[in-house]
User: Which sequence fits this backbone?
Protein backbone atom coordinates (compact mmCIF):
# COMPACT_ATOMS: atom_id res chain seq x y z
CA UNK A 1 0.00 0.00 0.00
CA UNK A 2 1.29 3.43 -0.89
CA UNK A 3 2.35 5.76 1.93
CA UNK A 4 0.20 8.55 0.41
CA UNK A 5 -3.08 6.80 1.27
CA UNK A 6 -2.99 7.54 5.04
CA UNK A 7 -2.20 11.18 4.26
CA UNK A 8 -5.26 11.44 2.00
CA UNK A 9 -7.45 9.81 4.65
CA UNK A 10 -6.24 12.36 7.22
CA UNK A 11 -6.93 15.32 4.92
CA UNK A 12 -10.41 14.07 4.05
CA UNK A 13 -11.18 13.56 7.73
CA UNK A 14 -10.06 17.11 8.59
CA UNK A 15 -12.10 18.66 5.74
CA UNK A 16 -15.19 16.64 6.64
CA UNK A 17 -15.17 18.13 10.16
CA UNK A 18 -15.40 21.68 8.76
CA UNK A 19 -18.95 22.89 8.09
CA UNK A 20 -19.92 25.91 6.01
CA UNK A 21 -23.12 27.16 4.43
CA UNK A 22 -23.50 27.73 0.70
CA UNK A 23 -25.85 30.44 -0.52
CA UNK A 24 -27.92 29.25 -3.46
CA UNK A 25 -28.31 31.61 -6.39
CA UNK A 26 -31.89 32.55 -7.37
CA UNK A 27 -33.07 30.53 -10.33
CA UNK A 28 -33.59 33.59 -12.51
CA UNK A 29 -30.02 34.85 -12.00
CA UNK A 30 -28.07 31.69 -12.73
CA UNK A 31 -24.94 32.65 -14.70
CA UNK A 32 -25.77 30.45 -17.67
CA UNK A 33 -23.93 31.40 -20.84
CA UNK A 34 -25.45 30.62 -24.24
CA UNK A 35 -24.07 27.45 -25.84
CA UNK A 36 -22.19 28.19 -29.03
CA UNK A 37 -22.57 25.73 -31.88
CA UNK A 38 -19.37 23.75 -32.38
CA UNK A 39 -20.20 22.69 -35.92
CA UNK A 40 -19.87 25.22 -38.71
CA UNK A 41 -20.58 23.17 -41.83
CA UNK A 42 -24.16 21.99 -41.41
CA UNK A 43 -27.10 24.08 -42.57
CA UNK A 44 -28.69 23.88 -39.13
CA UNK A 45 -25.66 25.30 -37.34
CA UNK A 46 -25.36 28.14 -39.87
CA UNK A 47 -29.02 29.08 -39.51
CA UNK A 48 -28.80 28.77 -35.74
CA UNK A 49 -25.79 31.06 -35.59
CA UNK A 50 -27.57 33.67 -37.72
CA UNK A 51 -30.61 33.61 -35.43
CA UNK A 52 -28.41 33.83 -32.34
CA UNK A 53 -26.55 36.78 -33.84
CA UNK A 54 -29.82 38.55 -34.64
CA UNK A 55 -31.07 38.03 -31.08
CA UNK A 56 -27.78 39.44 -29.73
CA UNK A 57 -28.12 42.52 -31.94
CA UNK A 58 -31.70 43.12 -30.77
CA UNK A 59 -30.71 42.78 -27.13
CA UNK A 60 -27.74 45.11 -27.67
CA UNK A 61 -29.94 47.79 -29.23
CA UNK A 62 -32.52 47.43 -26.46
CA UNK A 63 -29.87 48.04 -23.81
CA UNK A 64 -28.93 51.30 -25.52
CA UNK A 65 -32.49 52.66 -25.43
CA UNK A 66 -33.72 54.83 -22.54
CA UNK A 67 -35.11 52.75 -19.67
CA UNK A 68 -38.55 54.37 -19.77
CA UNK A 69 -39.10 52.95 -23.26
CA UNK A 70 -38.37 49.33 -22.28
CA UNK A 71 -40.78 49.02 -19.36
CA UNK A 72 -44.56 48.77 -19.28
CA UNK A 73 -47.56 46.73 -18.27
CA UNK A 74 -49.16 43.73 -19.89
CA UNK A 75 -52.71 43.51 -21.21
CA UNK A 76 -55.00 43.87 -18.23
CA UNK A 77 -52.23 45.46 -16.16
CA UNK A 78 -51.41 42.15 -14.51
CA UNK A 79 -48.95 42.41 -11.60
CA UNK A 80 -45.35 41.61 -12.44
CA UNK A 81 -46.01 41.51 -16.17
CA UNK A 82 -43.60 42.99 -18.69
CA UNK A 83 -44.52 44.79 -21.86
CA UNK A 84 -43.40 43.09 -25.04
CA UNK A 85 -43.90 44.00 -28.66
CA UNK A 86 -45.26 47.12 -30.25
CA UNK A 87 -47.45 49.01 -27.79
CA UNK A 88 -49.88 51.57 -29.25
CA UNK A 89 -51.45 53.81 -26.62
CA UNK A 90 -53.56 56.75 -27.81
CA UNK A 91 -53.90 59.98 -25.86
CA UNK A 92 -57.46 60.73 -26.98
CA UNK A 93 -60.62 58.62 -27.46
CA UNK A 94 -61.21 57.17 -30.93
CA UNK A 95 -64.83 58.36 -30.95
CA UNK A 96 -64.99 61.43 -28.64
CA UNK A 97 -68.74 62.06 -28.97
CA UNK A 98 -70.28 58.64 -29.56
CA UNK A 99 -71.91 56.26 -27.10
CA UNK A 100 -72.53 53.29 -29.40
CA UNK A 101 -70.00 50.88 -30.86
CA UNK A 102 -69.97 50.81 -34.67
CA UNK A 103 -67.97 47.67 -35.45
CA UNK A 104 -67.16 48.48 -39.09
CA UNK A 105 -66.03 52.04 -38.31
CA UNK A 106 -63.99 50.81 -35.35
CA UNK A 107 -62.31 48.17 -37.52
CA UNK A 108 -61.27 50.75 -40.10
CA UNK A 109 -60.05 53.19 -37.44
CA UNK A 110 -57.95 50.54 -35.67
CA UNK A 111 -56.45 49.47 -39.01
CA UNK A 112 -55.41 53.07 -39.72
CA UNK A 113 -53.94 53.49 -36.23
CA UNK A 114 -51.77 50.38 -36.63
CA UNK A 115 -50.72 51.27 -40.19
CA UNK A 116 -49.69 54.83 -39.24
CA UNK A 117 -48.09 53.91 -35.90
CA UNK A 118 -44.57 53.71 -37.35
CA UNK A 119 -44.11 50.11 -36.20
CA UNK A 120 -44.14 48.86 -39.79
CA UNK A 121 -42.21 51.72 -41.39
CA UNK A 122 -39.65 49.54 -43.18
CA UNK A 123 -42.38 47.27 -44.56
CA UNK A 124 -44.18 50.32 -45.98
CA UNK A 125 -40.95 51.51 -47.56
CA UNK A 126 -40.52 48.12 -49.23
CA UNK A 127 -44.09 48.23 -50.56
CA UNK A 128 -43.58 51.77 -51.84
CA UNK A 129 -40.32 50.75 -53.56
CA UNK A 130 -42.27 47.93 -55.24
CA UNK A 131 -44.86 50.52 -56.38
CA UNK A 132 -47.63 48.89 -54.35
CA UNK A 133 -48.59 51.97 -52.30
CA UNK A 134 -48.39 55.73 -52.94
CA UNK A 135 -45.68 57.82 -51.29
CA UNK A 136 -48.27 59.75 -49.28
CA UNK A 137 -48.63 56.71 -47.01
CA UNK A 138 -44.91 56.81 -46.28
CA UNK A 139 -45.09 60.56 -45.61
CA UNK A 140 -47.79 59.99 -42.99
CA UNK A 141 -45.48 57.89 -40.81
CA UNK A 142 -44.14 59.51 -37.60
CA UNK A 143 -40.57 59.20 -38.94
CA UNK A 144 -41.35 61.77 -41.65
CA UNK A 145 -43.49 64.26 -39.73
CA UNK A 146 -41.91 67.68 -39.30
CA UNK A 147 -42.19 67.86 -35.51
CA UNK A 148 -40.13 64.69 -35.04
CA UNK A 149 -36.34 64.54 -35.32
CA UNK A 150 -34.34 61.37 -35.78
CA UNK A 151 -33.15 61.48 -32.16
CA UNK A 152 -36.42 62.67 -30.65
CA UNK A 153 -37.99 60.71 -27.75
CA UNK A 154 -40.96 59.79 -29.95
CA UNK A 155 -38.77 58.16 -32.59
CA UNK A 156 -36.62 56.48 -29.93
CA UNK A 157 -39.78 55.01 -28.41
CA UNK A 158 -40.97 53.70 -31.78
CA UNK A 159 -37.52 52.20 -32.37
CA UNK A 160 -37.71 50.32 -29.08
CA UNK A 161 -41.18 49.04 -29.94
CA UNK A 162 -40.00 47.91 -33.37
CA UNK A 163 -37.16 45.92 -31.84
CA UNK A 164 -39.54 44.28 -29.36
CA UNK A 165 -41.98 43.54 -32.18
CA UNK A 166 -39.21 41.92 -34.22
CA UNK A 167 -38.15 39.83 -31.23
CA UNK A 168 -41.58 38.76 -29.95
CA UNK A 169 -44.09 39.33 -32.76
CA UNK A 170 -46.56 40.88 -30.28
CA UNK A 171 -48.58 44.03 -30.87
CA UNK A 172 -50.82 45.76 -28.31
CA UNK A 173 -53.44 48.48 -28.58
CA UNK A 174 -54.56 50.28 -25.44
CA UNK A 175 -57.05 53.10 -25.89
CA UNK A 176 -60.38 54.66 -25.00
CA UNK A 177 -63.19 54.20 -27.50
CA UNK A 178 -65.18 57.00 -25.90
CA UNK A 179 -65.65 58.27 -22.36
CA UNK A 180 -65.50 55.32 -19.89
CA UNK A 181 -65.23 52.78 -22.73
CA UNK A 182 -61.79 51.14 -22.71
CA UNK A 183 -60.28 48.75 -25.26
CA UNK A 184 -57.18 46.57 -24.78
CA UNK A 185 -56.15 44.29 -27.63
CA UNK A 186 -53.25 41.83 -27.91
CA UNK A 187 -52.17 39.96 -31.07
CA UNK A 188 -49.28 37.49 -31.15
CA UNK A 189 -48.11 34.63 -33.39
CA UNK A 190 -48.18 30.98 -32.37
CA UNK A 191 -44.47 30.65 -33.10
CA UNK A 192 -41.71 33.14 -32.34
CA UNK A 193 -40.92 35.12 -35.55
CA UNK A 194 -37.23 34.16 -35.53
CA UNK A 195 -38.08 30.46 -35.26
CA UNK A 196 -40.76 30.80 -37.94
CA UNK A 197 -38.29 32.37 -40.37
CA UNK A 198 -35.86 29.51 -39.86
CA UNK A 199 -38.63 26.96 -40.45
CA UNK A 200 -39.76 28.77 -43.61
CA UNK A 201 -36.20 28.81 -44.96
CA UNK A 202 -35.80 25.08 -44.33
CA UNK A 203 -39.11 24.40 -46.12
CA UNK A 204 -37.98 26.43 -49.16
CA UNK A 205 -34.69 24.55 -49.34
CA UNK A 206 -36.63 21.27 -49.39
CA UNK A 207 -38.92 22.57 -52.14
CA UNK A 208 -41.94 22.81 -49.84
CA UNK A 209 -44.29 25.71 -49.21
CA UNK A 210 -43.81 27.49 -45.86
CA UNK A 211 -46.43 26.66 -43.25
CA UNK A 212 -49.01 29.47 -42.93
CA UNK A 213 -48.67 31.27 -39.59
CA UNK A 214 -51.29 30.97 -36.85
CA UNK A 215 -52.25 33.90 -34.63
CA UNK A 216 -53.63 34.27 -31.12
CA UNK A 217 -55.53 37.33 -29.98
CA UNK A 218 -57.18 38.58 -26.82
CA UNK A 219 -59.55 41.53 -26.49
CA UNK A 220 -60.64 43.13 -23.25
CA UNK A 221 -63.51 45.58 -23.65
CA UNK A 222 -64.88 47.58 -20.73
CA UNK A 223 -68.16 49.39 -21.43
CA UNK A 224 -70.34 51.59 -19.19
CA UNK A 225 -73.48 49.83 -17.87
CA UNK A 226 -72.16 46.53 -19.28
CA UNK A 227 -68.86 45.93 -17.58
CA UNK A 228 -65.99 43.81 -18.83
CA UNK A 229 -66.14 41.49 -21.84
CA UNK A 230 -63.21 39.34 -22.92
CA UNK A 231 -62.63 37.42 -26.14
CA UNK A 232 -59.90 34.85 -26.79
CA UNK A 233 -59.29 33.88 -30.43
CA UNK A 234 -56.99 31.74 -32.54
CA UNK A 235 -56.80 32.08 -36.32
CA UNK A 236 -55.05 29.51 -38.52
CA UNK A 237 -55.55 30.14 -42.24
CA UNK A 238 -59.35 30.46 -42.48
CA UNK A 239 -60.08 28.50 -39.31
CA UNK A 240 -61.12 30.57 -36.27
CA UNK A 241 -61.82 29.46 -32.71
CA UNK A 242 -63.26 31.90 -30.20
CA UNK A 243 -64.53 31.98 -26.65
CA UNK A 244 -66.16 34.83 -24.73
CA UNK A 245 -66.28 35.77 -21.05
CA UNK A 246 -68.50 38.33 -19.34
CA UNK A 247 -70.23 39.11 -16.05
CA UNK A 248 -72.74 36.46 -14.97
CA UNK A 249 -75.89 38.56 -15.64
CA UNK A 250 -74.82 38.99 -19.29
CA UNK A 251 -74.00 35.37 -20.10
CA UNK A 252 -77.46 34.42 -21.41
CA UNK A 253 -77.93 37.51 -23.57
CA UNK A 254 -74.41 37.20 -25.01
CA UNK A 255 -75.04 33.54 -25.83
CA UNK A 256 -78.09 34.61 -27.82
CA UNK A 257 -76.10 37.27 -29.66
CA UNK A 258 -73.38 34.85 -30.73
CA UNK A 259 -75.63 33.41 -33.44
CA UNK A 260 -75.56 36.77 -35.25
CA UNK A 261 -71.80 37.01 -34.74
CA UNK A 262 -71.31 33.54 -36.22
CA UNK A 263 -73.33 34.48 -39.30
CA UNK A 264 -71.31 37.66 -39.85
CA UNK A 265 -68.01 35.83 -39.50
CA UNK A 266 -68.99 32.99 -41.83
CA UNK A 267 -70.75 35.03 -44.50
CA UNK A 268 -69.05 38.42 -44.18
CA UNK A 269 -65.47 37.40 -43.37
CA UNK A 270 -65.49 33.93 -44.96
CA UNK A 271 -63.96 32.14 -41.97
CA UNK A 272 -64.67 28.65 -40.67
CA UNK A 273 -65.83 28.72 -37.07
CA UNK A 274 -67.76 26.46 -34.72
CA UNK A 275 -70.06 27.58 -31.94
CA UNK A 276 -68.72 30.27 -29.61
CA UNK A 277 -68.83 29.26 -25.92
CA UNK A 278 -69.73 32.00 -23.43
CA UNK A 279 -68.71 31.70 -19.77
CA UNK A 280 -68.71 33.80 -16.63
CA UNK A 281 -65.65 35.85 -15.82
CA UNK A 282 -63.69 34.42 -12.89
CA UNK A 283 -64.18 36.30 -9.66
Assistant:
Amino acid sequence: MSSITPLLDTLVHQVAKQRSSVDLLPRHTLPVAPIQATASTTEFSQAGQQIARLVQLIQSFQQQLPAQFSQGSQLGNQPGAQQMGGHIKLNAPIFPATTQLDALTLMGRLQTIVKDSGLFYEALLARWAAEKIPFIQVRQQPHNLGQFRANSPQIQQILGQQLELLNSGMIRIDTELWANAHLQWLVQPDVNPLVQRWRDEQSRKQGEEPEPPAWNSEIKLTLPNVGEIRAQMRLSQKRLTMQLQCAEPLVESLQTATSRLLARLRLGAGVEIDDIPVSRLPL
